[in-house]
Structure formats: C-alpha cells, structure tokens
Design brief:
heterodimer; A: 202 residues; alpha+beta; five-stranded antiparallel β-sheet; 5 strands; B: 214 residues; mainly alpha; two-stranded antiparallel ribbon; 8 helices
Amino acid sequence: MLRFIKIVYPLVVIGVGVGFLLSFTYQSLEKRLAESAKNEEILALKKVFPEAKNFNTKEIEGTEYYVATDENGKEIAHIFKTANTGYGGPVVSLVAITNGFVANVVIVSASKETPGLGTKINDKKWLSQFIGKKWEEIPAEKSEFKTKGIDAVSGATFSSLAVSKDIRDAFIIYKKLGYIVDEALIDSKSSATEKKGGTNEN
Amino acid sequence: MKINWKELTKGIIKENPIFVVVLGLCPTLAVSTQTINGIGMGIAVIFVLAFSNLLVSLLRKWIPNEVRIPAYISIIATFVTIVSLLMQAFTPDLNRALGIFIPLIVVNCIILGRAEAFASKNDPLHSVLDGIGMGLGFMLSLTIIAFIREVLGSGTITLQLAGVGPVFDLRKYISDPAVVFILPPGGFIILGLLLAFFQYIKNKKATKKTEPQK
C-alpha cells in the first residue's frame, strides 16, 4: 500500500500543478479570448456586408440573426449565420440578403473540409456566383448545380452543396421574418439530402 | 557547466525528426498544404517541446519509473492547451487553419519521444536545447514539404499570418497546378522523395568517411 502511494503521489501532484497552471493561463487570457471571439464575429460581419455602419443582433424563434443598418439607422440587409454538413464537418456561412436577393456570402468556418480542395469554397470568385440570386436559383441538391447554372467546386461537390444549403437556410429564416411570401421554399427543405457517409481522410 | 551545442544542432539535420528519425508524420502530412501552416505548426511544436522537455528534465528524478508515461502526457497536454489558448487569443487566423491539429500535438511521437529518450536522462539546460533543436528540425522539414506541395498543388506561396504578410501568386508560370499534391497522396509522394534524398546524402557521407553505416 505504501509503495502504491509512493508511486501515485507524484502523478497527483503533477495533475494538481498543471491544473493550476492551466487555470492561471485561462484566467489571464479570458478577456483576450472573449475579445478575439467578438472581433472575429464583427470582422466576419464586416466582410459579408462592408457598407453597413451597425449590426444589431435580433432573434426569431430562437435563431439569432443580424440586421445591418446604414448611418441613418435604415435597414439595408439581413445577415444570417447558417450551417450544413459538408464533406468532413459543418460548413458555417454568413449570408447577407437584401430585398430577397443574396447580397454576399462569407464562409465562417469550414475547417473539416479537405485542405486545398473543399476549402476552395472560401474563394471569393466562386462565392460571387451566388450574389444577386433569388432563392429559386440556389441549388438544393447535387443535380441542381447543373440545371441552375451554378458551378460546384470541382472535386468538392459536398462542400459546395453545404454552402448552397447554407444560403437556402438563410432564405428560410428570411421568409420567417415575413419578407418572402412563397410556400415552395419551405417545401423544398424537406427534400434536403442527409449527410454523406464515409470517413474523413485524417 | 559546459554547454554542448551539438544537442541543439543535431535535431536540424543529423537527427531530423521527420526526414531521419521519421516520427510524427500524421500532422506533417495533414497540415503541410500551405507554407505558413508549416511555420505556424513548427513554432507551436518548438514551444511545447522546449517547455515539456524542461519540466520533464526537472522532475526526472522524482517521477517514478512506473508512472512516467502518464506524467509526461499530462505535462505535454498542459503546454499544448496553453499554445492552443494563446493561438485562439492572438492569432485567430492561424488557429482557424491549424484547427484540430494543435490538440493532436499531445500525441505527437516526437514530443513524447524526446521526453522519454532525452529529457528523462539529461539535465534541464541540454533538454531545452534538444527540444528547441528538434522543434527547429520539425519546423524546417514541415516548411519544406509545405512549400513544395503548395507551389506544385496550388501555384501559390502563402506567408500570410493573421492577415499580415504576402501571398505570392505563381499561377502566371504554373498555369495548371496539380491538385493531387495538396491531397494526401501528393503529401506521401513528396515526403517519400524527400526521405530518399536525405537518405542519399546520408549514404554518400557514410561512404566518403568509409565508416560502416550506423
């Protein structure tokens, strides 16, 4: 028994010691971490709609969204944060919608997509083909990329589809706000395909 | 006490953790798609290696042999968590790029290997030197692999960190980059060729000295 304690007590001491070290590090960085997270959020919002002066956070049915206003306080865009599963994990986008048209799309996080392939959805040129589209023109499934005339990133259809679905989801929230009166949008959601199987390459 | 600087320099070429010892290939292949990722991951590994080696070396006489591995792992995990918190706080861009690979440093064989093979038998000063040297070797190899893969695979050289720094576009000269080099197979191909290259140099040196190899 004594031998057992002799062996184990250094582990306990190390555990407690590193615990203190970690809590100290976290505490001294806490402010900076929160700031960094907030900065990231604002930076992303600014990226998706640079013309706006202010971003107000609002909520509908438990979903947060942002209203971008100009210097006179006039609403100029609605920004939605949506997520869909891509190839390896969630693809989170910010979608700005003005008067029922896509004003801009920015990918917030696609860290589980294949580097150099799926991550090409971050490409501004690729994302720009969604700008100015109505919800009917956004592909809801793989086959619709061709029929709706939008190019998927070659070799990364699932990642591309996730972005496309993000935009559609944004329109669905936008509709809840009462800006679009079209039942077909909600119906099309039910046909959304489920997550692709298979494992990540890492 | 005399400082043996060989402990610092040996990790860079002679005992390079990637090309010679061939350890820790998982993060190597996974993150080496952009040049900056190699540098960033390398800095993170240098930090973790130096501090974990220091602590392991300081505690080497006090940690019982039976529980040394869990003790090392807790020490390493602590420093990895600190690195990850620092990255989140100060370089969110890099944090986004390296994402899941930072926590994976915990189980990176290089770090546990150096703790076990070197730090647990040597004094703190040389252990830190060893850690920094091995980390530099790791960073260097990773940057070389990432550089080649990025140039061939995307036709760019990214040195951009936290929005600062240049991104060189070589697509004028390389009109059709071969995407395969960004994908895992390309990583293996490049790594294999580099391993062969280093082995060739090593063999040549060995025959020159007419010493038996190893």
